[in-house]
Amino acid sequence: SAGDLRPHAEPAVLARGFEQAGAAAVSILVDQRFGGSPDDLRAARSATSLPLLAKGFFSTRSDLEEMRSAGADAVLLLLRDLDQATAAQLLGVAGELGLDALVETHDAEELDRAVELGAAVVGINARDLATFEIDRRAQLELVARLQRTRPGLKARDMVVVAESGVENRAHGAAAEVAGADAILVGSALMRAPDPAAKLAELLARPLVKVCGLTREEDVAAAAEAGADLAGFVL
């Protein structure tokens, strides 16, 4: 929907740069409809020791076997496109192959399905794959809901990943405050003149918050000065 974000991207160069910038893992798009391929995964594997997530539309055992042979450490399972029985089967296959699985959800129903599956890593995507619209508020509400309704679950059994819509440090901080363990960032990095530098910026500390704002012009001034967060006393 956004067109080619980086037509001449070199997966090996990007993966190496992301590792040096502090990434915990690298997601590699392997679906040809979106400009990716398993060869991109192989190129990234040759350049980094970080865990690699194969990001595509997988529905069969052979799909996962192909990703494993190409160098993936984990695969994406989209509950939007999988019924519960197939999702459970693929989770089992992933375990047999030594692959982790990022089980991706988009709404409350899918989130409940992921919990029912006992998924160890759950992604909550702010992007609606039908419309490609971003709704970060709905995403963060789902992250917070998971923590409220299942106390202690995340710490014991689940890694929660906030996916999509992260453009700056404040977005990442909001995901963390809501209860996410990690963020998955794609478009913001691939649009940046220097993707590795953009990642380092997203991971930078500390954040700057300007508190006690009461007027719209104050908020604009704080943003122009470089603030990451704005505080309001209600």
Q: What is the molecular shape?
A: globular
Query: What's the Cα radius of gyration?
Result: 18 Å
Number of helices: 11
> Spatial order of the strands in the main sheet?
1-2-3-4-5-6-7
How would you sum up this structure, described in words?
The protein has 234 residues and is of the alpha/beta class. The protein has eleven helices and nine strands. Strand 6, helix 8 and strand 7 form a beta-alpha-beta unit. The longest helix has 14 residues. The protein is globular and about 60 Å long. The model has no long low-confidence stretch (mean pLDDT 90).
Quick summary:
By secondary structure, the chain is α/β, with parallel strands linked by helices. Helix content is about 45%, strand content about 15%.
